[in-house]
Design goal:
Elements (H helix, E strand, L loop, with lengths): L5 H15 L3 H14 L4 H10 L3 H14 L4 H11 L5 H16 L5 H6 L13 E2 L7 E2 L1 E2 L6 E2 L5 E3 L2 E3 L1 H11 L4 H24 L5 H25 L8 H14 L3 H8 L4 H5 L1 H18 L1
Antiparallel strand pairs: 1-2, 3-4, 5-6
Bound molecules: zinc ion (ZN) (2 copies).
């Protein structure tokens, strides 16, 4: 049925205006928005059919419009063109009559109407915005921080609104407050402890049934301890790569003491694989805990 609700009506006008400017992607977005709310709006189905490119989708959209309004001339004509059939003469007459009626109807000045309607929730002029990083993409989104228009692929959703990549980066830089020296301190603190823990894991704690029950607790506690003590040593500051650095130190802490076993495996002593099961679990659980503490 024809759209009566003023808000959807205004969206339809907006979509048609975008379509008439050749902004098919923007028009498609609005038509789909209308159809989400009013799936029986044949005008929106017709409009959608005219701005999308996929022939199957186009055919389906014309089909929906005709199901709802079987003698819609524009839909009959559109489908005929899609199939490469001639447009039936009576349809052509109806189309001409429609066009004439439209030409006579008083035309609202579209841009003026759009700009004089600063209603909350939807601004008809919104789709006239263009992404500041992609001049060929129209959008309705703005960065909440700098207020510049951004397209959906540039926008990052945050709890308070969309943010553009530049502002996102700035926010992250403010979040990461570490100093270059912190990386050195982190290595000096976490590497010795990781080596000691790794040595004990590889040489003493890698066998026995009781060990396999306890290893998850021990590993979590050790990893958490390494993370916390390193974090304290650097004054609680955060660095983009600090968590990864501590994880690397923990891997080194196991790999160095395990070198003899690794060589034994390489020379054919596959029994060593079992001996590395415990240290493997320790690394997996412990490094996750340390990473979490360093964030
Ligand atoms: Zn921004
Ligand atoms: Zn963009």
């Amino acid at each position: 049925m024809a759209i009566k609700e003023p808000r959807l009506r205004s969206l339809l006008t907006q979509a048609e205006r975008n379509a008439s400017y050749g902004k098919n992607a923007a028009a498609e977005t609005i038509y789909r928005q209308i159809l989400d709310e009013a799936p029986n709006a044949e005008e929106a189905w017709l409009g959608l059919a005219e701005v999308i490119n996929d022939p199957a989708e186009k055919r389906a959209a014309y089909g929906r419009a005709l199901e709802l309004e079987p003698d819609m001339p524009a839909a009959i004509a559109g489908l005929a063109v899609l199939d490469g059939r001639p447009i039936p003469p009576e349809v052509e007459v109806a189309l001409a009559a429609e066009a004439a009626a439209e030409a006579e109807a008083p035309r609202p000045a579209p841009l003026l109407v759009a700009e004089s309607e600063p209603e909350e929730g939807h601004e008809p002029a919104a789709y006239e915005l263009v992404c500041y990083r992609h001049p060929d993409r129209s959008t309705s989104l703005r960065c909440y921080n700098c207020d510049r228009p951004i397209c959906i692929s540039c926008a990052n959703k945050t709890p308070v609104g969309y943010i553009c990549p530049e502002c996102q980066r700035e926010a992250e830089d403010a979040f990461f407050n570490s100093k270059p020296l912190d990386y050195l301190i982190a290595v000096l603190v976490s590497l010795p402890i990781s080596l000691l823990a790794g040595y004990l894991m590889v040489n003493f704690f890698s066998r026995g049934f009781l060990f396999f029950i306890l290893i998850f607790f021990i590993s979590g506690a050790v990893g958490s301890f390494i993370g916390r003590i390193t974090k304290r040593a650097i004054g609680g500051r955060r660095g983009r790569y600090l968590p990864g650095l501590v994880v690397a130190m923990m891997i080194l802490g196991v790999a160095i003491p395990a070198l003899p076993i690794l060589f034994a495996i390489l020379t054919g002593n596959l029994g060593g694989v079992l001996a590395l099961l415990g240290p493997g679990i320790y690394l997996f659980v412990g490094a996750s805990a340390a990473y979490w503490q360093m964030r």
